[in-house]
Amino acid sequence: MLQGYCKDIIQIEDFEYMVRWHTARTYPELLRLAGEMPQLHQRLGLVKGMTVFCLLQPYWLTNQNNKASLGILRYCEGLTAGSNDLQNCQYYQTDHTNNFALNTLPSLAWKVGMVMYIMACLLLIISSFLAGLCLCIRKTKTVDRLSLASGLKQLTAGVLLLTALVTFPVGFDDAKIQETCGAHSTLYRLDTCSIGWSYVLSTACSVLCFVLPILSHYILHSSAYDRTLL
């Protein structure tokens, strides 16, 4: 639909004027950016949304024996009589307030992992903004710089996400985690708990952070062949 819209504009407007106005762009490049960059921008936005979504979920570790689950920011425990729904799902907090408190997280490894995870989310937001700017800039050199900056931030976010996910199991020997997941839980080993879907989805998002920069580089530079055909 967007490609058809761009074609209509170029048919109505004088083609030579469009070429002069887009001094750094050829006609195939314009259509390629109009048709493919929004899709890449949507994919990056989807990864960003899933990454933040996983951060807020309490299903990083699950224990089916007592129907409890743990996350980086939230945890759930217990069942009401005759109910299959988890109750008491809340953020890690002090006994005196309902506000989230960093020092109440189960272990130092989880605190470090949470900070790196949040930093990765912020970098993904910035990267998504820079990717969107590529649609508004006419000069190729500027677009290349923005694309490079966006890609580097995505890669950095991917590294931070992977580091956070690797750091996360280091804290399995914490007393609170052992209370939920069994006394034999230790580094990178769980007793009665299993890895939850939030952790798995976060891992997939971190992998996509490495794939999308390569895809964006291909989209922005694969038009060189089209240029030779003009």
Automatic annotation (TrEMBL):
GO terms for cellular component: membrane. InterPro entries: LHFPL. Pfam families: L_HMGIC_fpl. It is found in: Membrane. The chain crosses the membrane at residues 114-135, 155-172, 197-220. The keyword Transmembrane helix applies. It is a multi-pass membrane protein. The keyword Transmembrane helix applies. Keywords: Membrane, Transmembrane, Transmembrane helix. This is TMEM211. It comes from Bugula neritina.
